[in-house]
Amino acid sequence: xxxxxxxxxxxxxxxxxxxxxxxxxxxxxxxxxxxxxxxxxxxxxxxxxxxxxxxxxxxxxxxxxxxxxxxxxxxxxxxxxxxxxxxxxxxxxxxxxxxxxxxxxxxxxxxxxxxxxxxxxxxxxxxxxxxxxxxxxxxxxxxxxxxxxxx
Length: 151
Known about the structure:
It is a single chain. This protein is mainly alpha-helical. The protein contains five helices and two strands; from the N terminus they run E-H-H-H-E-H-H. A two-stranded antiparallel sheet has the order 1-2. This is DUF892 family protein. It comes from Halopseudomonas pertucinogena.
């Protein structure tokens, strides 16, 4: 079991969104088909916006919730602290979407779990806000990715 604070969880989340964006941009090459390129560019931009939003939540969080300890093993199987390497190289649009949605669904699970375990009301509120952010971002991403399929 790893002991961390809620502030660490927000930092980890921001880093995850940055990692997704970086890996998508690194995977774009001259052989990337146009549909995949559009998707990768959109998702990378979306992930950078999410990272910035999480950092704003982190900056606005009160000291009580930021320094509250959480007792859950966070991040061993999910980048940026994972044992496996996240890569989108050679993936088509469907594979890219599947990987990104898997990561977002894992984040939703983490925030759902942390919300249920939060020991103080301020931490519950912070986790509720983060859960709403991730769910909304995932829905918006799904809608935009669906529109790309229509092209």
